[in-house]
Design a protein that fits this description.
Strand order of the largest sheet: 7-6-5-8-9
Number of domains: 1
Strand content: 25-35%
Helix content: 10-25%
Number of helices: 5
Structural class: alpha/beta
CATH superfamily: Vaccinia Virus protein VP39
Largest sheet: 5 strands, parallel
Distance between the termini: 35 Å
Shape: globular
């Protein structure tokens, strides 16, 4: 049996140990040894983008919180109008590096798409500072309201967090939240 090979490691701001591991061509991101996402199983990440990005108007601007392995961003770009824009927010620098390196080919290099704007920072801060800016927001940070990798993500699912999301959306905007539990 082939062993899992550690390709990269990172520590999230709250101290969670993240690692990118590879086995027989499959990559997984783990948080404190718990699998978060995989290059083999990514249907839900693709679906997250599909439910909010279908039939967006020309010039639509969407925001994705959490890069992961890039599947939500790739799917959003595939569905966005040619003049659309995807703002990808990712807190952990190493996850961005992994998406520019070993896992980039799985999603056809979405960070290099001219419609992608990468914001390396906290998605909660981006949401707090946005007003009537996005046609759609997709949150794939951690595992939903019950965080595994970063406790600070819990704010997004409180009343003030949800109100901030509403403020960040344009009138008629859409939001989708990925959750492992619901």
């Amino acid at each position: 049996m082939k062993p899992w090979i550690t390709v990269g490691e990172a520590i999230s701001p709250d101290g969670t140990r993240l690692e990118l591991v590879e086995h027989d061509g499959e990559y997984i991101i783990r948080a404190d040894d718990l699998p978060l996402m995989s290059t083999r199983m990514h249907f839900s990440e693709v679906e997250l983008a599909r439910i909010v990005c279908v039939k967006l108007k020309p010039g639509a601007k969407v925001m994705i919180g959490g890069l992961g392995l890039g599947y939500t961003l790739r799917s959003a770009l595939d569905l966005l109008p040619e003049d659309g824009k995807a703002v990808q927010v990712e807190l952990v620098t190493e996850i961005v590096e992994w998406n520019r390196g070993p896992v980039a080919t799985f999603t056809d290099h979405p960070l290099d798409d001219k419609r992608t704007e990468l914001v390396q920072g906290d998605v909660a801060e981006v949401i707090r500072n946005a007003h009537n800016e996005f046609d759609a927001i997709m949150l794939d940070v951690d595992n939903g309201p019950s965080p595994i990798a970063d406790e600070s993500n819990a704010w997004l699912y409180t009343d003030p967090g949800l109100q901030a999301i509403r403020h960040a959306l344009k009138n008629g905007g859409r939001v989708a939240i990925w959750s492992a539990d619901d």
